[in-house]
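Kindly go through the entry underneath: sequence plus fold tokens. Please state briefly how this chain folds according to its tokens.
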Amino acid sequence: MEVLNAIGDTAVGRVFMSGAVVNFFIVILGSAIGLLFKKGIPEKVKNTLMWGMALCVIYIGITGLFEQNINIIVVILSFALGSVVGELLDIDRLVNRLGEKVEKAICKEDAKIAEGFVTATMLFCVGAMTVVGSIDSGINADNSTLYSKSVIDCVAAAALSSSLGFGVMLSCFSVLIIEGGLTLLASFVAPVLDSATVSHMSVIGSALIIALGLNLLGATKIKVMNYLPAIFLPIVFCLVI
């Protein structure tokens, strides 16, 4: 037990025990379920499940807003400046264009495995929950966001693999590498951040998770990726305010 605790206290150990690993296995599980139902999962069942997951995402985001010792001015300034930076860079468009280029590059031969792999990788690895969840896992050792994402990915993997096949399951390696890498990076940065800065970053991340949940419900079409710079701005504002 002492050895496990010692491993868990290291940056690499935190990744090994993180939500990224859980997400990895859950994508495999969901894909396997989908492959068993090759005729496809009924659309109404898939929609109902996804809406239920969206409500859970919103709940997690709301509970994450209630941090102690939050300076609302820091949150407002971070969102204001972060949204301007994100919109000028148009991170959402850049990410989507990157996905399209990767898909075209890999799917030149129109292989169904490649199509399933790229489609699932873009769905599971490009989004606010991936970034926010991995950062929260690395900095706070809080995997709740990635666990919730894993459930959503399980449903999506089952639906995709039932139509696109085995390539969807292969995307589990993309999930492990991207989420694990972000978690590892965040864990290295964590020691130089004080508790107040981390709390502000978590609150902003939680707000973005709520926005993502609303998008999943179809209630809004917020470009959540364009707000990602706001998560990191408390590092600056907490020093001057």
Observations:
- Residues 1-8 have pLDDT under 50 and may be disordered.
- The chain has one domain: 2-240.
- The longest helix spans residues 195-217.
